[in-house]
Amino acid sequence: MGFTRFVEIGRVVLVNYGPDEGKLAVILDVADNNKALIEGPDTGVPRQLIPFKRLALTDFKLPIQRNARIGTIKAAAKEADLYAKWEASSWAKKKAKKVKRAQMTDFDRFKVMVARKQKSAIIAKKVAELQAAA
To answer: Are the C-beta atoms of 16 and 54 separated by less than 8 Å?
Structure first.
């Protein structure tokens, strides 16, 4: 099985380190074997050179030219419905779930525990009823 995600102009990336961590950006140019020029106008990522080890390549790619302007990037992202597709991806859902769990209070965790116990009790009761009927 070969690679499916390549470093290329227009590839949407997720910044995984630094002040812009967790934000989407687009590769505008490849500087050398270690760095790329990126920008995320809708997510607040300024145009900057960043090492590849601080980027995670996504499956999304925008049809833009090298060193595209901000307006061009925004238009391509809107046309491709990039942010809706990203929010629908399992990767984004997992990140949102992680953030939500990190923001829970002790009482929220307690409520989740109680709900989980109630669910398990209901499932156990239904299984016992089905086994008794069979």
So the answer is: yes
* Closest among 1, 78, 82, 65 to 27, alpha carbons compared: 65
Measured between alpha carbons, how far is 35 from 52 in angstroms, rounded to an integer? 6
Distances in Å between the Cα of 64 and the Cα atoms of 22, 69, 83, 112 are 22, 9, 16, 45
Contacts for 41 with CB less than 8 Å, ≥ 6 apart: 70, 73, 74
What radius of gyration do the chain's Cα atoms show?
22
Looking at the fold, whether 3 and 50 belong to one and the same domain comes out as yes
Mean pLDDT score across all residues of the chain: 96
Tens digit of each residue's pLDDT (9 = 90 or more) over 42-92? 999 999 999 999 999 999 999 999 999 999 999 999 999 999 999 999 999
Distances 70 to 57, 78, 84, 107, 130 between C-alpha atoms, Å? 20, 12, 19, 44, 61
Question: In terms of domains, do 116 and 84 share one?
Answer: no
- Return the pLDDT at 133: 87
Count of domains observed in the chain: 2
**pTM of the predicted protein model:** 0.82
